Amino acid sequence: MHKFSSGGRRHLLVLGFYILLSLVLTWPLIRNLATHVPGVAQWAFDESTFVWNIWYFKSALIDQLSSPLHSELIWYPLGIDLVLYTYNFYHVLAAMPLALAANLPLASNITLLASTVLSGYGTWLLVTYLLARQGGPDHGRPAAHGQPAITWSAFLAGAVYAYASNRAVYAALGHYDMVTTQWIPFYALALLRAMDTALAPGRRRRWALFGGVFFALTGLAEMISALFLGMFTVVVLLIWLWRARRERPPGDELRGLVANLVILGGVAFVIWSPALLPILQAFVAADYDLKGWGDALILSADLRGWFSPTVFHPLFGGDVVQELRQVQARAANPDLAGFRDVNTVFLGWITFGLALIGALAYRRKVAIWIWTAVTFGVLTLGPLLQINGRSRFDIDGLETTVPLPYLLLHFVPVIKANRAPNRNSVLLMLGLAVLAGYGVYWLVTRLRQQGAEPSGQPRVLSAFQTAIAGGLAGLVIFEHLALPFPLSDARIPAVYRQIAADPNPVSVLQVPLGWRNSFGVFGSERTQLQYYQSAHGKPMLGGNISRAPDFKMDYFRRIPYFQALTETEFGHPVSPEQFDAARAQAGELMYLYNTAYVLLMPPIPGRPPYSDTWQASWDFVKSTLPLESEPFWTGDGIEAYRVLQPQGSDQFRLDLGTQGTYPYRGEGWDEAESDEPYGATATWATGKQSRLFVPLRSVQPGAVYNVQLQIHPFAYPGGPQQSVQLIANGQAFEKLPLQEGWQLVSWQVPGSALVDGLNWLELAWEYAAVPRAILPGSRQIGSTGVELPVDADMKAFEGGGFIALFDDEGNQRDGSAGRKGVNITVLDPGSSEVLDKAGFDTTASGAESDRLATYLAGIEPGFPALVVSYGDATAHLAPAAVDGLRTLGADVTLDSLRGNYFAIAGVKGAAPGSAAQAVDPAEAFLRVSLNRDRRMLAAAVDWLNVERGE
User: Fold this and answer.
1) Sign of the alpha-carbon torsion through 538, 542, 548, 552
2) Number of folded domains in the chain?
3) Where is the domain boundary, 616, 642, 668?
4) Contact 392, 400 (CB under 8 A)
5) What is the DSSP string of 140-203?
6) Are residues 554 and 666 in the same domain?
7) Which neighbouring-strand residues pair with 941?
8) Which residues of the chain carry a pLDDT beneath 70?
9) Distance of alpha carbon 272 from alpha carbon 220, whole angstroms
10) Is the peptide bond before 38 cis (omega within 30 degrees of 0)?
11) In the prediction, which pLDDT does 137 show?
């Protein structure tokens, strides 16, 4: 009982120290727990996203009984999926009880502080286990966990991991998912214990179960961190297998290891699967996978940064806002010296030194941690080595780059989604923390051995030795300081309480207005305004998301009003034509989106571009939107206006395929705003679901409304019968069969299924087909019987001669030599490879015509050749060259070509007259191609009409 009580007190004492340090090292957060959150207001306000997540998860799941993995409240009116999104489910679930009892900032702050405390405590447990499992690294007998040297060493290791600069920077930048790291050391402890043959099989199985729980909790916090744990597990297993080659463990140990890994993986999957399965499905099906390298180079650690304190250090740092502005300047001008991004991965001088001591002193015992630190350390450096922002180095006149192993991860599915190499630091710092713990242990035990009794028994750790260990811990904490801890204001302006009291289904527009995802930004997005939604609960224009389909951002980019407003926010000039188009559209948009409130927010000093353009943005909004003459609320620098809405009607007609209808079309429509398929002004439905936005007012719940559409299905020989089903605001109605040709379809919809405001009408089609797949056409070259291996367009005219080649995905490449006269491209008949491109300037020289004739004679029989003229190609064209063209199957003479432009697709050795050709005095165009239409077509829709029935 005494030992248990002593051990319990030791754990409580360690936890108490970590709690105290966490409060001190995040000062002044403790004074502002309910009003501010960690973050820098001049950066991206990512902290606001994570606080909003807590509110939205509860609002969707509990209040609305809907999936928290989708929201109609941001990116309005489209809505957005929250699957490939930095949700941090653990943070949400852990904070929710306190959020319900108090408020969101307090709940988030307590949860973050707990993450820091548990990060330290988990590492303390891990290093205590590692040092004590065999009497410390220097002994062969079990040692008591309470041995002071072990306790001090493990405590310092926990301090390294909990208070390392990378966690402080992530918190300051609002990346709370990368601060929720506490389950990583717990997982490492569980994994090693599950593999520890000194434990009974039953205990190892229990630790495997715990490992699955900790792995799942890590994944629920951040999927990338779970991937890191998977990579860490591979490191551990490889080292275990390497050692097993010499030790040759019995077969039952191998079977036990495999069984425990299966238990671990199974438990992790069961707990994580509600979030993991939608994520994996989205990776497979979505059209917003990582494009290229993203910002991988910018978000890599800099080698110099490993040994440079962060900007947040009170002595060695600098002006945070100025550093953020310099980062933006370097992004715009890569030639500027300095870190490409805020320095995130500072190893610490003392930390690195202690880790080096631990690695050298116990290199065989700490192989796992050496390889963990090296592996993840190298990965933090990203695809190319950078030193002080430079990734290109001049070596005696030779400019070169230094590729790094991270390049390989870019080609691994799912793993390549990690576009921020510096995030590997969460495992790098755990490896360094463990090694530093070993380093302290080595130093302390050396002192103890020097002060040993003559009998050889070690003394109790002296006060001097305690001071040494404590001093090292203090130095480690000092070099990683981030004080005062940056905070952003999380108090919500009182105006939102008034908006919340409005019972109508209205939306809110706030300036600055913007949309942001991992691939770009449109407008001066301020995520803080998304957090304010937690106070009013109304849909809002704008928003922040991790990944979004291209269509989501394109929808807003194509609307003239948003084009003009965002250009104003960025300080770009708006032409009179743009301004007039925006003003003409403004009232219609407010009616469509049922926007009742417009809030003009003050700038945040030092946060451009809006800090420089806010007055121009306000003036633009006031001069274009139909607002009341005076704001209904002012305060905190905000001006809040009501929108003057017309009375409106419960009837609506939309003539698709005409200009100005784009804002009414959601997902599942062709990009063209105006089109005439099947001879009518209509728009193609391109997908199995097509959504329309329909504004209605004064809807009578007891009435019946006729929803009518004029539709022409996309039909093809042998295809199935098309049908369409109407889904109004989530309520499904009858599925109607469609015949060939234009036809009127109609549904009777009760008024109770419609709303006063924006209605979502979705058309669900039986099928959608790709014309290229079902009506492929032919690449046959004239009547030669030979098919061209690629799609080709050829165009000849006075100002050029082009040959455009297209692969099966529609990617274009230039196939012409681009010279005046006659251009010839020879293709491999079995592939799309261009064997040769040649040009002969017959506009200027007869000798060029002779060269052309010789070239044509040298083409191998059976090889396809494409020919285009450029300018007056017949000026010096001789009969021999024309005869050469005839060997390609062309039916031409010198007289028929003179004064004309020509394009020929032929095959060497084909009979004259069998090639495909175009000869024209103005412009010769020739296409040899499969069907180019790669759209998914369901039907053409001419118009929509909603009216109250009799």
Assistant:
1) positive
2) 4
3) 642
4) yes
5) SS---TT-HHHHHHHHHHHHHHHH-HHHHHHHHTT-GGGT--THHHHHHHHHHHHT-TTS-HHH
6) no
7) 683, 711
8) 1-6, 134-146, 286-292, 448-464
9) 6
10) no
11) 55
Of 530, 420, 509, residue with least CA distance to 44: 530
> Under a CB-based contact definition with an 8 Å cutoff, are residues 437 and 127 in contact?
yes
- Note down the domain range covering 763: 652-773+936-948
- d(Cα 881, Cα 842) in Å, to the nearest integer? 10
Single-letter amino acid, residue 30: I
Name the pairing type of β-strands 507-511 and 595-600.
parallel
Q: What is the pLDDT of residue 142?
A: 45
Q: What is the pairing mode between strands 36-38 and 487-489?
A: antiparallel
User: What's 774's DSSP letter?
Assistant: H
Q: Is residue 411 part of a domain?
A: no
Residue 29 has what DSSP assignment? Answer: G
Among the listed residues 914, 888, 884, 912, the one whose alpha carbon sits nearest the alpha carbon of residue 784 = 914
Classify residue 738 by its DSSP letter. Answer: -
**Conformational region of residue 845, where left means phi above 0, alpha means psi within -120 to 50, and beta covers everything else:** beta
Q: Which of 226, 258, 292 is the last residue of a domain?
A: 292
The answer to whether residue 221 sits within a structural domain is: yes
Residue 824 has which token pair?
A: 């010839």
Q: Which among 485, 665, 657 is positioned nearest to 21, based on CA atoms? A: 485
Q: Note whether 180 and 228 are within 8 A (CB).
A: no
Beta strands in 874-923 (DSSP E): 901-907, 916-920
Phi, psi dihedrals of residue 237, rounded to the nearest 5°: -65, -40
Residue that has been written with the tokens 């548990």 in this structure: 118
Helices 165-172 & 148-163 angle (0-180, nearest 10): 30
Helices 104-132 + 183-194 axis angle, to 10:
30
Q: Name which of 156, 162, 148 is nearest 127 in CA terms.
A: 156
CB-CB contact of 416 with 410 (8 Å): yes
Give the distance, in angstroms, between the CA of residue 688 and the centroid of all CA atoms in the same chain. 26
Residue 166 and residue 314: Cα distance in Å, rounded? 16
In terms of domains, do 671 and 584 share one? no
Backbone φ, ψ for residue 549 (5° rounding): -60, 150
SS3 for 757?
A: strand
Model-wide pTM > 0.85:
yes
Peptide bond into 829 cis (omega under 30): no
Considering the domain boundaries, does residue 373 fall inside one? no
Cα gap 290→520, rounded to integer Å: 12
Task: Say how far apart CA 424 and CA 379 lie, in whole Å.
Answer: 6
> Letter for the amino acid at 61?
L
Rounded Cα distance, 147 and 140, in Å: 15
Cβ 590 vs Cβ 643: under 8 Å: yes
The tokens of 155 are what? 């405590």
Residue 258: phi and psi, rounded to 5, are: -60, -45
Among 24, 51, 23, 25, CA closest to 37: 51
Nearest by Cα to 425 from 468, 475, 465, 378: 378
User: Domain check: are 856 and 909 in the same one?
Assistant: yes
- Cα 694–Cα 597–Cα 559 angle in degrees, nearest 5: 50
Residues 786 and 761 in one domain: no
The answer to whether residues 814 and 867 belong to one domain is: yes
Q: Give yes or no: residues 807 and 677 share one domain.
A: no
Domain membership flag for residue 915: yes
**Phi, psi dihedrals of residue 886, rounded to the nearest 5°:** -70, -25
Rounded Cα distance between 542 and 532, Å, is 13
The CATH number of residue 680's host domain is 2.60.120.260
Looking at the structure, tell me whether residues 180 and 36 fall in a common domain: yes
The torsion angles phi and psi of 429, rounded to 5 degrees, stand at -70, -30
**HSE toward the beta carbon, residue 437, CA cutoff 13 A:** 35
* Distance set, CA 25 to CA 74, 316, 395, 804, 853 (Å): 35, 16, 44, 62, 82
List strand residue ranges (DSSP E) for 785-863, in order.
Answer: 791-797, 800-806, 812-814, 821-827, 834-840
Co-location of 632 and 676 in the same domain: no
Token couple for 915: 């090639």
Q: How high is the pLDDT of residue 321?
A: 87
Sheet holding 638-642, edge to edge: 507-511, 595-600, 638-642, 633-635
For residue 834, with 0-12 CB atoms within 10 Å meaning exposed, 13-18 middle and 19 or more buried, which class applies?
middle
